């Protein structure tokens, strides 16, 4: 029976000199019979996202798979919500939090 995994796939965008100009991370849900199969699927997803193009500055850039940084077994068969991605932002460390937050007034698009 297949299990459900969450895979965090990290990509880098490099210029012609292999200098990283941007990076991205996405979380994918995959169904697989084993951890190894889930890892292979994750690699295939990442490789399918690789592409080259000419950017707005007229330079050739290429998105490349950097790594599968997490691969976790996820129990999403139950009725309870399951977190599949959480990110910390240390750039905000030390800033004063003065904003009154009302997430219920700001739903995602």
Query: What characteristic shape results from the CA principal axes?
Result: flat
Q: Which spans of ≥5 residues are poorly predicted at pLDDT below 50?
A: none
Series of H and E elements: EEHEE
Number of strands: 4
Instruction: Please state the average pLDDT score.
Output: 86
Question: Quaternary state, please?
Answer: single chain
Amino-to-carboxy terminus distance:
35 Å
β-strand amount:
35-45%
Major β-sheet strand ordering = 2-1-4-3
- Report the helical percentage: 10-25%
* Count of individual helical segments: 1
Structural class: mainly beta
Return Rg in Å: 18 Å
Largest sheet: number of strands, sense, barrel closure = 4 strands, antiparallel
Could you walk me through the main structural features you see in this protein, from its secondary elements to its overall organization?
The chain is mostly beta strands. The protein has a domain at 1-73. It is 13% helix and 41% strand. It has one helix at residues 35-48, and strands spanning 3-15, 20-32, 51-54, 60-74. The longest helix is centred in the middle third of the chain and has 14 residues, at 35-48.
